User: Which sequence fits this backbone?
């Protein structure tokens, strides 16, 4: 069991509780005994286990040191026409003595300090049940503090509710597409025609048989030089654009169907046989 904030639990509380005081709770001003304004309603705390409303969070603002205090719901008298909350039997000075509420979790010791302030000026209320401890305390021990005031408006209509399906969409991340590059290798072959020189030595028989001139000198050593060339293959690599890739997103629309069981309130009327009932 814990006390939780109305606004934190129901961020859309104005629409959720549009048909009662909770829907415009923070529009109300708070007045203590003697028409002394002591602050404005900022939030409310309710029991997350039972759903019972326990406190109004009152911001005293400039009226009392700017602190926030708790007002048990049973002490709040709502004036809806003027959007006021009256706390009869509580003085402005007692509001000043209330322990400050800092928004943290409310524990038993803190609540006892709050209850002590409201009890000390409640001569007309029944005394709380004695003998309880932090382990067995129940809010029924202080019914006058925690019983919400009942409405006395006889013209208040009986509201019959029904559930309806509200279609909405939530955008969430479905995943990632990562586009990258990798390098693959392959062995390629290229053919290049190359030329190389070769030296051809042809020997032929002389066409004359005449003797050489008298005194021919026989020599040794180099008598001719021929430069020989050859081509070798020179292969290099160059990078060319092979393909262009563009990356973009396209949004496609599809219709999805969801189903749920809806509840609806119907009016049941039981009468005695001698009672005439008119339905309009």
Assistant:
């Amino acid at each position: 069991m814990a006390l939780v904030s109305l606004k934190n639990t129901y961020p859309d509380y104005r629409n959720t509780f549009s048909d009662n005081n909770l829907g415009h709770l923070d529009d109300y001003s708070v007045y203590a005994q003697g028409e002394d304004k002591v602050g404005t309603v900022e939030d409310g705390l309710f029991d997350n286990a039972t759903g019972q409303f326990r406190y109004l969070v009152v911001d005293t603002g400039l009226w009392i040191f700017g602190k926030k205090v708790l007002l048990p719901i049973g002490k709040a008298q709502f004036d809806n026409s003027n959007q006021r909350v009256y706390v009869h039997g509580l003085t402005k000075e007692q509001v000043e003595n209330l322990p400050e509420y800092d928004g943290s979790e409310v524990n038993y010791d803190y609540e006892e300090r709050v209850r002590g302030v409201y009890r000390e000026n409640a001569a007309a209320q029944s005394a709380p049940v004695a003998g309880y401890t932090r382990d067995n305390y129940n809010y029924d021990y202080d019914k006058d503090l925690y019983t919400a005031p009942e409405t006395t408006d006889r013209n208040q209509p009986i509201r019959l509710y029904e559930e309806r399906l509200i279609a909405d969409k939530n955008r969430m991340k479905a995943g990632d597409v990562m586009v990258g590059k990798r390098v693959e290798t392959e062995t390629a072959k290229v053919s290049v025609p190359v030329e190389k020189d070769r030296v051809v030595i042809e020997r032929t028989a002389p066409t004359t048989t005449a003797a050489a001139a008298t005194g021919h000198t026989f020599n040794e050593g180099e008598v001719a030089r021929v430069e020989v060339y050859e081509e070798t293959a020179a292969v290099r690599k160059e990078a060319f654009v092979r393909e262009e890739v563009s990356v973009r997103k396209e949004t496609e629309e599809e219709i999805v169907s969801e189903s749920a069981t809806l509840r609806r309130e119907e009016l049941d009327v039981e009468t005695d046989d001698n009672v005439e009932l008119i339905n309009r």
